[in-house]
Amino acid sequence: MNDLMGGMTPSEYIQNEFVWPFEFRPYQNESIDDLVEYQKAGYYLPVGGGKTVVGFAAALYQAQHGRCEQIVIICPPILLDQWYDFVEEISALNGSMFNSLVYRGTPGQRRIMALAKQDVIIMSIQILKNDFRRLQPYLNAKKVTIILDEAQAIRNVSTKNYKAIRDVSETNNLMMLTGTPINNPLHCYAYIKQLFPEAYRSIKMFRNVHVAKEDFYGAATEFQNLDMLKSSLEVQAKIYDSADVIPDLPDIVYSVIQYDLSPTHAELYKKLVREELLVLEEEVIDATTAQNMYHKLQKLVLNPGIFSDQKVDRPVGLDVLDETLDELQLDGPLAKDKLIIFCNYRPSNELIYEYLEEKFPGQNRICYGGKLGGTGKNPQYIKEFLNDPNVKYMVASPKSIGVGLNLQSACRYILFMETPLTSNDFNQAYQRVVRSGQDMKCTVKFAVARHTIQEKIVAGVREKEALVQQLTPTQQNLLVALKDLA
Q: What span, in angstroms and rounded, lies between the C-alpha atoms of 129 and 134?
């Protein structure tokens, strides 16, 4: 192949054939050169490491060499416009050479879209599943390179997400992009099954090899043979430590804010715990039941009245927010004096947003799936947060803006008012701001209520993060920060 390209490597060739708005970094070149000839490959580049660039460049290389007729990009809905803008930018730099389409809208609108006329089609995985009967025959009848952005969406092999990607990529090229592939060793199986199916015949075999102990309900509690698992995960894939490959990562100041609930709030919290334990004595405690209890008990930290009519003082969490705002002084002259506040749950997002709106009318936006705008408004609100200097606050859930978005140009402060249940959610959320291109020191704050489920959640996240470090090494900053919350 090098002879056909005048001795150039694939990465050299693609940068010679196309105009790019930036110079590729060495690890990006390495990823393209090492993986682009595979039909399926995993680009597990760190968050902020340019997965978009690498994936699209590799896909263009395959198109130039007759290995695909179309590029299909599948990503979270929140990233559809970001991907489209990037593709259009590359197209414009090269003489408007691509026809690009975001495949979305009503079912009727989607039915009349002329897919065959497009060079690049961008869609969400939900739309892929909704229109699967139409899209699968179309995609499997063509030569297509599928770019799956935020590939962690398929890390559970029992889900429709996994099965849809498996079926449309069976005869096509597949590039899986993610900065946080796993937060549990069991998640490795889905990636390995896509790229290296010979490694394990089944999930049962995988568990026999790598699960050392299980609890009464069959949940894995200890793992083994992690060196073997790491080797299997790296077949036809590249995994990088962000600290090694991204030289311009900003400094981060982590701050833990531990506080006590008010006496009446604390008593209500204890009462709910006692009631939940009585209920659990009457039923089987499976993983779903346990997780539901975690969610319920954490919701109560900011929303004391959500499960009871008992009158409770103003949540102390709002005092923590006030203290944070006083400390950060977000009315300063710097463009990046903005704050993202992460809450997991709709009642909490709405509480924080409405509280801020009373204090700072018109300066707030909310991105989540609830009643105050809903998911349809999320892209608009994100643009306003990025571009309007008068919009100082973004209230969001990690699930709504926790993947893919580049917010480092507008913000350097993050506050977690509720504790995500996984290290993956922590990493993805704070790395919207702490990423390549950030030119200021960042502050990431965690608010944790003492003697509540939040302390246990943090301990669990810390334990899982330490385990994941053995398989996909990342920056140690989060692990160090979580250690302070023991």
A: 10
446: which strand partners?
256, 416
The token duo for 324 is 């944070």
Q: Considering the domain 10-243, what is its CATH architecture?
A: 3-Layer(aba) Sandwich (3.40)
d(CA 33, CA 238): 11
| Three-state secondary structure call for residue 144 | strand
Contact 314, 355 (CB under 8 A): no
Residue whose tokens read 């779903």: 288
SS3 347: helix
- CA 63 to CA 145: how far, in whole Å? 8
- DSSP for residue 377: G
Please check whether residue 409 is in contact with residue 219, taking contact to mean a CB–CB distance below 8 angstroms. no
Rounded distance, CA 46 to CA 28, Å?
A: 11
Query: Is 378 within 8 Å of 311 (Cβ atoms)?
Result: no
Task: Establish whether domains 10-243 and 252-483 are of one fold.
Answer: yes
The three-state secondary structure class of 441 is coil
Can you name the CATH fold of 252-483?
Answer: Rossmann fold (3.40.50)
Domain boundaries, the chain: 10-243, 252-483
**Whole-number pLDDT of residue 342:** 93
Determine the Cα angle at 111 with ends 107 and 114, to 5°.
Answer: 140
Q: In what order do the strands lie in the sheet with 120-124?
A: 100-102, 120-124, 70-75, 144-149, 173-177, 40-44, 237-239
Rounded distance between C-alpha atoms, residue 57 and residue 36, angstroms: 9
Q: How confident is the model at residue 479 (pLDDT cuts 50, 70, 90)?
A: very low
Under 8 Å between Cβ of 260 and 266: yes
Cβ distance 396 to 356 under 8 Å? no
pLDDT tens sequence across 3-29: 556 789 999 999 999 999 989 999 999
Has this prediction a pTM greater than 0.85?
no
Strand partners, 393: 339, 364
Q: What confidence tens digit (pLDDT) does each residue in 216-225 have?
A: 777 888 899 9
